[in-house]
Amino acid sequence: MTCNPVTERNAQLVTPPGLLNGDPIGTVDTSIGDDEVIQRQAMLPSSFECVACRLKISGFFKLSACGMGNASPRLILHNN
């Protein structure tokens, strides 16, 4: 099995399955729905771990070199 962690990205979810962790940056955009509060904030990636092959990449500059250094949206959902 080969692992290419930079093929597809969607927020913190990466294909193949992995965890992209980071630090929040900028302001929080808050919207209110019927029974929920939605908060969005940009995240600057700091580490990645592939759950398939256990590949670990730490550091913003290394992630940028792999094509994974773009700020990604972080979504926080509060339900009543």
How would you portray this structure in words?
The protein is mostly beta strands and 80 residues long. The protein has one domain (8-79). It contains 1 helix and 6 strands, in the order βββββαβ. The protein has one helix at residues 60-65, and strands at 8-10, 13-15, 18-32, 36-50, 56-58, 72-79. Strands 1, 2, 3, 4, 5 and 6 form a 6-stranded antiparallel beta sheet that branches. Strand 4 and strand 5 (56-58) form a beta hairpin. The chain is elongated and about 40 Å long. Residues 1-11 have low confidence and may be disordered.
* Amount of helix: under 10%
- For the record, the count of structural domains works out to 1
Beta-strand percentage range: over 45%
> Helices and strands: which structural class?
mainly beta
How would you sum up the global shape?
elongated
Q: Enumerate the spans where pLDDT stays under 50 for 5 or more consecutive residues.
A: 1-11
Q: So how many helices? A: 1
Helix/strand order: EEEEEHE
Rg is 14 Å
* Main β-sheet description: 6 strands, antiparallel
Alpha carbon gap, first and last residue: 43 Å
Mean pLDDT: 77
Tell how many strands the DSSP assignment holds: 6
Which keywords apply here?
80 residues; mainly beta; six-stranded antiparallel β-sheet; 59% strand; disordered N terminus
Ordered list of secondary-structure elements with their pairings:
Layout: E1 8-10, E2 13-15, E3 18-32, E4 36-50, E5 56-58, H1 60-65, E6 72-79
Antiparallel strand pairs: 1-2, 2-3, 3-4, 4-5, 4-6
Can you give me a brief rundown of this structure?
The protein has 80 residues and is mainly beta.
